[in-house]
From TrEMBL, chains A, B:
InterPro entries: Creatin/AminoP/Spt16_N, Creatinase/aminopeptidase-like, Creatinase_N, Pept_M24, Peptidase_M24B. This is Xaa-Pro aminopeptidase. CDD domains: APP_MetAP. It comes from the Bacteria. SUPFAM superfamilies: Creatinase/aminopeptidase (SSF55920), Creatinase/prolidase N-terminal domain (SSF53092). The keyword Nucleotidyltransferase does not apply. It comes from Labrys wisconsinensis. The lineage of its organism: Bacteria, Pseudomonadati, Pseudomonadota, Alphaproteobacteria, Hyphomicrobiales. Residues 20-163 form the Creatinase N-terminal domain. Residues 171-373 form the Peptidase M24 domain.
Length: 391, 391
C-alpha cells in the first residue's frame, strides 16, 4: 500500500530502464522488428528518463533507437547532449542542429544501418494516439534510402507502455493525491460572482504549491445545471447560482499525468442535476468494480453504459467512457464498444462516465485507478457522493 | 506605441481572421496550392481562433481546411464542436471520434474533394519546424485515395505566419511585459540556499498571478560562473555563492508566447563572468540594431557573432543566435549563416547571443523584438546591464 504522504523519488533507477528495454525487446521480437526509433517526448522519456520542456520548440528533431538487443542509442541535437549525459544512456550521438539540410537524418540512418538485420523491419511512431515529431519529408527521405522497411511501430510501443511498472504507478498516484487535495480545497477559495478563469487560476496556483511540476491541461466550464462540453475553457463567464462548474486536470509530477475532473454546484443544486450526479457516481462505482484483470474494456464500458442509459442519457459527445494514462494525458486503451483490450495487472485507467441529460447540459465524472492482482485500486481520492457547493 | 499596462482583448475579430485567410490565399496562389489542411494546435488556432488545452490528448486528430478561395472548413471530432461553434468558423463538420477504423480520414477526403481543382496540389504540414498531428498511416491512406497530390505546405504556412498582425504583436508584447516584471521581482523572492526547483516554482506562480495563462517552458539551471546547457532543468541543485542562475521562459497569453531568459548572480559575480556578461549585453544591442527591415537573418547573426568571437567564445551548442516566435515558442526564421530570410515589418524575433567561455560555463542573453518600419522595437523590458544579484 502506498502512503499518500510519501513523495516518490524523482527519476527511475538504471535497473528500471533495463527492465523496460528488456520487456520492449521481447515485444519487438513478437512484432518482428529489428529496432524501433522514437521521436516524441513521452516515448523518448520512457526509454531514457530524459526530461525537458524544450519539446515546446519544434525546430530540432530528437531520436532514440531501441534495438532488438543491446542498449538504446540517443541520436540528438548537440544542445541536448549535456543533459542526456546525466541519464542512464551511454551511447549518445549528436549533430549541430538546426541544420535544415540534414537535421539528424543521415546520423539516424547510419545508426539504424549499424544494427544487425534480422526481420528487415524498423518500427516508427506512425499509428494511433501518437505523433511523429520530425518533418514527414525527412521520414520519406529516410525511408527511401534505408535498407530496411519502416513500419508502424505503435502497436508494439503501446504494448510496452500500456502496462506500467510499480514505480510509474507511484508517480501517477502522487500527482493524483496532489490534485485530489487541491480539488477538495477549492470551495474554500472561490465564491459566487468570480469567473471560470479566476477559479482556474487559483486551482493552478494551489496545485503548483502542493508540488505538481506543471498543469498542461485544465479545462473548465460552467453552465446552469450542466455544461455543453468538457475539453475547452475557461472563459470569463461569471459563476452564478444554479450553475455547475466542471474542472478537469492533467497535472504532472516528474512527467506522469493525473487525469480526472470534479464538479461543483454554485449556490446549490437542482433536483434533476442531483439525480444525474447520483447516477454518474454509481456508474463510476460500477466502472471501477468492472475493471478487473481479465475483463475487457468493452465490459467496463458496458457496466457504466447500462446505468447511464437507465438514467436517461440523451447523448455523450466524448465517444468513450475512460482510457489509459501515464506519460500522456490519454493513452490506449479506450473503454468503448469494439476496443476489446484485455485489462491486466499494472494498467492505469480512467473511469469516466458522462451524459447529456438535457440539451447542452452534460455532467461527467472521472477517477483514476491502477489494476492490481486483487482488482482495481483508486489513485484519486474518491469524489464526494454529494456535489460540493460553492457559495 | 503600446501601453505596457493595457491588457489586449482576448481573441481576434472576424475581420482579423478574414485578413489572415485572404493573405494565406494569396500565398497559396503563389505556391500553387488548391488548399492546405492543418492539424497542429498553432495552425488550427491561427486560422480559427480555436483555443483548447485538449491538444494534450493525442487520441483524436483535428483538421482545418483552408481553400484557395472561400472560407475555411473545420473537420473535427464531435467533442470539439460546441466550442468551435463559438469561433468565427461557420462550416464545421464532425465525426464521433475516437473511431480508430476511420478517424476523420474519409470526412477530410470528402471535404478536400469538394473543392475546385486547379493545381491538383494540397499542402500539408510535412516540413520544417512543424509536426503533423495525425497518424502517419492515416496520411498514407488519404494520399493513396485522394485525386490531388499532397505536398509539403510548410513553406507556404511559414510565409503566412512569420509576419504577424498588429493584434498578434500586442498579444506577444503583453506576455513579454508580464514575464519581464516577474523576472525583475525574482531577486526579492529567492535566497542563497534555495534550489533551482524552488526558484522556478516561485517564478511560475508569480507569472500566473500577473496574468499569464500558462508556462509551458521554464528551464532553469545554475553553475559556478555559468551553465553547461540552457534547455533542461530545474534540478534540486542548491544555489551557492559564485553561481549563475539561468532561467528562460516561454509563457503564454491567449496562445502567444514570449521567449526570453534572464541571468542572476548568486552572492556576487566574478570578474570573468562579468566581462562575458558585458560582451553579451553589447552583442544583444548589436543584434537588435541589425534587425531592420531589408536585413537578412545572416546579417543579424554576423552582428552578434563578431562580438562573441572577440570576447573569446569557445563554443555555443545552441546552433543559432535567435529565431522567430509567436503561437510557437520557436518559429522560423533562424539567425544563422545560410538562413538568408529577409527581415520585414511585423516579424517578431528573439535576439539570443550566447557563448561558452570556459568548458561547461555558458552565458546566454535573450530579448524579444518586433520589426517596425522605423526599425526594431523591444517587446521585453531590457535586461539590466549589470547582472542582478541574489543574496
Amino acid at each position: 500500500m502506498i502512503n499518500d504522504d510519501v513523495i516518490p523519488r524523482r527519476g527511475f533507477s538504471p535497473s528500471e530502464f533495463e527492465t523496460r528495454v528488456e520487456r520492449a525487446q521481447r515485444i519487438m521480437q513478437r512484432h518482428g522488428l529489428d529496432a524501433i526509433f522514437v521521436t516524441s517526448p513521452p516515448n523518448v522519456r520512457y526509454f531514457t528518463g530524459f526530461d525537458s520542456q524544450f519539446w515546446e520548440s519544434p525546430t530540432r528533431p530528437w531520436f532514440v533507437v531501441v534495438p532488438l538487443s543491446g542498449r538504446p542509442v540517443a541520436v540528438i541535437p548537440e544542445i541536448g547532449a549535456p543533459e542526456m549525459a546525466l541519464t542512464w544512456m551511454e551511447d549518445i550521438r549528436t549533430w549541430p542542429a538546426p541544420v535544415p539540410e540534414d537535421d539528424g537524418v543521415s546520423l539516424l540512418k547510419a545508426t539504424l544501418e549499424g544494427l544487425p538485420r534480422r526481420f528487415g523491419r524498423i518500427g516508427a511512431e506512425l499509428g494511433r494516439e501518437m505523433s511523429l515529431r520530425m518533418p514527414v519529408i525527412d521520414l520519406f527521405r529516410l525511408r527511401d534510402s534505408l535498407g530496411s522497411e519502416i513500419v508502424d511501430g505503435s502497436p508494439a510501443i503501446w504494448a510496452m507502455r500500456m502496462v506500467k511498472t510499480d514505480a510509474e504507478i507511484a508517480h501517477i498516484h502522487h500527482i493524483c493525491t496532489i490534485a485530489s487535495a487541491a480539488y477538495a480545497a477549492l470551495p474554500g477559495q472561490i465564491s459566487i460572482g468570480e469567473s471560470e478563469r479566476e477559479a482556474v487560476r487559483k486551482l493552478r496556483i494551489d496545485i503548483a504549491r502542493r508540488g505538481a511540476d506543471a498543469t498542461p491541461f485544465m479545462p473548465a466550464i460552467s453552465g446552469p445545471g450542466g455544461v455543453p462540453q468538457i475539453v475547452c475553457g475557461p472563459h470569463d463567464r461569471i459563476l452564478e447560482t444554479g450553475d455547475i462548474l466542471f474542472i478537469d486536470t492533467g497535472s504532472t509530477f516528474d512527467g506522469y499525468f493525473c487525469d480526472f475532473d470534479r464538479n461543483y454546484a454554485i449556490g446549490g443544486i437542482c433536483a434533476e442535476a442531483a439525480r444525474v450526479h447520483e447516477a454518474l457516481w454509481l456508474a463510476t462505482e460500477a466502472g471501477i468494480a468492472a475493471a478487473v484483470p481479465g475483463a475487457t474494456t468493452d465490459a467496463v464500458w458496458q457496466a457504466m453504459s447500462r446505468i447511464i442509459e437507465d438514467a436517461g442519457a440523451i447523448g455523450n459527445n466524448v465517444g468513450r467512457l475512460g482510457h489509459g494514462l501515464g506519460l500522456q494525458l490519454t493513452e490506449p486503451p479506450s473503454h468503448r464498444p469494439g476496443d476489446g483490450t484485455v485489462i491486466v495487472e499494472n494498467m492505469v485507467l480512467t473511469i469516466e462516465p458522462g451524459m447529456e441529460y438535457a440539451p447542452g447540459k452534460m455532467i461527467v465524472h472521472e477517477e483514476n485507478i491502477a489494476i492490481t492482482a486483487d482488482g482495481p485500486r483508486l489513485l484519486t481520492r474518491r469524489a464526494p457522493r454529494e456535489m460540493p457547493v460553492i457559495r
